[in-house]
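LAB NOTEBOOK - FOLDING QUEUE
OPERATOR: T.R.
BATCH SIZE: 2
PURPOSE: Compare the predicted structure-token outputs for two unrelated chains run back to back under identical settings.
PRIORITY: normal
REVIEWER: second-year student, initials M.K.

ITEM 1
FIELD SEQUENCE / FIELD STRUCTURE:
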Amino acid sequence: MVHNWFGYVPKVNYQLEKIVEYDESVYQIALEILEGGHLDHGFKAYTTAFKLTQVSEAETLTDIKVLYETQPGHNHIPGETIKATFLYINCLENYLLKGLL
């Protein structure tokens, strides 16, 4: 399923991230935003974790976990923030599929 998230993702000009978890044996990585990105949109902390699991020769399951903390008094819909992550995964998938064709 392909989604067009471009109209729904807040514009981000800059984002500095740090790898806070990396486990190559289980194909897992977590990235914490240090500056910019979601921190410019009302969050105090924002971390996204990815775990990849092979389903078949041509399929990989991507588990995504988002941990966040909002600024005091900021009402934010957490489900909206994950759209940027889906956009990234979708773009990566399209890039990889084009390379395999």
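ITEM 2
FIELD SEQUENCE / FIELD STRUCTURE:
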Amino acid sequence: MSDEHTEELPSDVQDLVHRLFKMAREGNTDLVDYVRQGVNVDLMNQDGNTFLMLAAYRGHADLVRGLIEVGADVDKRNKHNQAPLAGAIFKKYDDVVDVLIDAGADPTVGHPTAVETATMFGRDDLLERLNAEQK
């Protein structure tokens, strides 16, 4: 949610939104319960990061799995055109990479793509899986 939109919200709602994004960064799986109660699973912060992006970038595989189960878009990119799969590869969170690949994340979206990121870091083991997903 952008700062301009957040400022329009009542302070208690602003506090809740900030807590929800903090939960994503910390890997708190209680966040999934909030989504089940009506919070938009693909809500974005001021940088265009969703809960899934933040959880993936911090290595929280269980939360990533839970968010996917409640409908998170595995390919939703942030304002920098970065996708969760490429971020997880960059951060070397193989368990998160596995969850995202198994959920059908597209290895060709974003910049750099997951394929490009794996290539940059010499992750031939991942390139085989990513290329197989493209077929």
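REVIEWER COMMENT (ITEM 2): The mean pLDDT is 92.
FOLLOW-UP: none requested
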